[in-house]
Amino acid sequence: MSPNEPEYGFPATLWRAVERRRPPLPRFRSSVRGPRFTAWLGLVLLVGMPVVIVTGLLSYVAYGSAPIPGDVGFLRPPAFDWPTSPAWLYRVNQGTHVLLGLVLVPVVLAKLWSVVPKLVAWPPARSLTDALERGTVLLLVGSLLFEIVTGVLNIQYDYVFGFSFYAAHYVGAWVFIGAFVAHVVLKLPHMVAGLRRREDPPDHDLVADDPLPPTISRRGALTLVGGGAALVGLLSVGQVLDGPLRGTAVLLPRGRTTAAGDGGPNDFPVNRTFVSTGIAAAATGAAWRLDVGGIRLDRAALLAMDLHTADLPISCVEGWSTQQTWTGVRLRDLAALAGVPEPTSAVVRSLETGPFAQAELHEGQVLHPDSLLALRVNGADLSPDHGFPARLIVPAIPGVRCTKWVRSVEFRSV
């Protein structure tokens, strides 16, 4: 049977009628396209995309009881106590998710380019199987582009969406996962066949009937795509590394924004500045007090307590992270002071308002020996941008849950 004829059972008269009414769709004549070229790109995505998916879902789980991803109904991620060890767990997870996601963008775009003749093939479907395949491709392409666009915009800009990025990105991810699984089931045999072939069959949908003279070989095209992915990686890896490479992270301007800019102890990235919160300066001045179970403590009283120092990272959902040396009072010592020596959870509240104005911690996070109400960083008092007069620092949790400008800590025993 010719590829231009319907499969058995498809009404031939309807087929011919639809085929005769072909709209003015573009025709593609590149000699680079073909099932082998597409199969190699598909193999890279088949290996890389599951890693992006799993790390993305784990990122939402790490938020625990925080209002993220929002009201997503039955798609709500399962609740369990996110581990506090190793301290770099969230840093590696989210850095991998964002960095690998960016690196795969050139591969995704090349894959879309390679199959575009299939996307605009006429008639729209030759059989029920073909219609199902085209439907999954539509969902796959649409959801993937949505995830890429919203993800990159969230990295670049601060809350530019008229909707919840977290909820939309999460639901979009599940649409992509469903389409991705269906597409793999339908196309895996074709990908395997494409990888095994030495030559493309001349009657394949992706092979041009009248190809133009090649301007690049298929091996050269794959090398070009790989080089583009490597370049994106080099321009992004600085987001998860401290030191000189931080300045090369051109795709992460917020992650390169420093609080001080003077090379001092507080000169490291920050997402949300003190000015942007709208907190009155007087609220963090001499009148500030920390409420711990009804006990009110000023900074002098906190500094007089047994202080602990720990090297811990801050890791944000945008993928950037940094490790600094923090000094403060252990949360478990504050719990004992408040008369709750064996807390099962804690709620830390900030002077600011909004969805991230508080963080709820489970027992393991409260009692970890490096979980701190930090007062200093790198031997100096916290700057206003880093949460002065006090902020939360807990191993392995998302940075947005390390509440800044803390006003109270409530320890619970039930």
TrEMBL record:
For the Oxidoreductase molybdopterin-binding domain, which residue ranges apply?
286-412
Query: Pfam family of this protein, just one?
Result: Oxidored_molyb
According to the record, the segments passing through the membrane are 37-63, 98-116, 137-157, 163-188
Q: Which domain of life is it from?
A: Bacteria
Q: Which CDD domains match?
A: SO_family_Moco
Q: Where do the coiled-coil regions begin and end?
A: none
Record's keyword terms, sorted: Membrane, Transmembrane, Transmembrane helix
InterPro entries (alphabetical): OxRdtase_Mopterin-bd_dom, OxRdtase_Mopterin-bd_sf
Q: Which residues form the signal peptide?
A: none
Name of the protein described by the UniProt record: Oxidoreductase molybdopterin-binding domain-containing protein
The organism that produces this protein has a lineage beginning with: Bacteria, Bacillati, Actinomycetota, Actinomycetes, Pseudonocardiales
